[in-house]
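We modelled the chain as a single entity of 502 amino acids. Its sequence is:
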Amino acid sequence: MELTVLNNDAGAEAGGCSSSGCGSSGDQLSHLPDDIREKVHNHPCYSEEAHHHYARMHVAVAPACNIQCHYCNRKYDCANESRPGVVSELLSPDQAVRKVLAVAANIPQMTVLGIAGPGDPLANPERTFETFRQLTEKAPDIKLCVSTNGLALPAQVEELCKHNIDHVTITINTVDPEIGAKIYPWVFWNNRRIKGVKGAKILIEQQQKGLEMLTERGILVKVNSVMIPGVNDKHLEEVSKVVKEKGAFLHNVMPLIAEAEHGTFYGVMGQRGPTHDELQDLQDKCSGDMNMMRHCRQCRADAVGLLGEDRGDEFTMDKIEEMEIDYEAAMVKRKEIHLEIEANRKAQAAKSGEAFVALASLGTKKKELRPVLMAVATTGGGLINQHFGHASEFLIYEASPTDVRFISHRKVDLYCSGGDTCGDAETALQKNIRTLEGCEVVLCSKIGYEPWDMLEEAGIQPNGEHAMEPIEDAIAAVYKEMADAGQLDKPRQTAEAAQATA
């Protein structure tokens, strides 16, 4: 099979910030045509900037899958776990539609409905398309998306087009059947289970064909890839070039999640996932040829809410059955909320312009200044608005003399629930601080004395002075303060040095 579509010349031409998605999030998509920017403007999964303001939800209507992946076990579920393929409730299409209307009426920021499992949506076409058909009719203000492994994609492209689905995600972990055989033990194709390299070759061919068919029809395609150290980590740069050549708009390289208790092959066999540095290094290498997604939360197949939060417990079917939903009235309210969000985004963008003018002038004077990683606690809205001890994840940004760019997010264990429990769980706090290794500043709305002291001992400066300010403005301001204080003219202070000077 030939997949030699590596267009090195085209790749070289596409390098630099404008093509890589680096730079401030407001500029991430500035090089794209207006029609594409319009499609992703309020899509939290496709736009890094939109994910601060808009929510998404997944409905679990697709139980069956037509391939086996070594990182997947759909039988395992923990309600507190965010991981693709796990769900707490499997829904019928009618139940799913009622749930979508209930969520959209109560979370007006919700703009996107996706079907992503727990199996493969296109291996369950009747259930998937019945859900889309009803939502197209009853909730025309919601974007419809689907995520697939791609095996059945070419046969379903025309049906996807009928339902006005203009965003599709394909999981493509390799374009090499030999590597594919190490990830997929079998695929179910033409009523037969086909194993090894032969099965992987069929899957890859179908993925590539489906990708090209979608892009020919103007459908935006995001490609997800799971980074598996020692299996495909050295190969994903080639994957990124291939899928871009075939028309993919965005590439999302995600870390492997493999724990023995999940019961997956990789988990049981002790296959490790990548470190934060390994993942970022690969994303940076791929970004020379492709727009990279860095804000993915690897959501559950029944996730509800902003990325990074899950409000699924508020919308179980027993609770939804008791709700009275007037979706005509809800659409009016949703439109008002969306207008308010857009006004806020516009105001924040105008204010950010002032901050980045200051940063740009700093860069022209001191290009030798080193970059700095900063962690941010936020509940959304693009603001620094969360207590350090209440954060279940931190957004990681890199500030440099030329820009502020989003790097990734890092999940932590909730160690503080307030009140009498505050500060009791010292071990969890220490673990969380280790998770922030490499960061020099933590920006949050508030922080207690104990974590403050421990962060300083670890060489990380807590900062609560920018509470309720836009994230990128605050980071730019802190970076400029560090530069003015001469802190960026010398190497980063290590934890050992911080403890020695304490």
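As a brief sanity check on the tokenised model: The chain has a mean pLDDT of 83. The CA atoms of residues 344 and 381 lie 9 Å apart.
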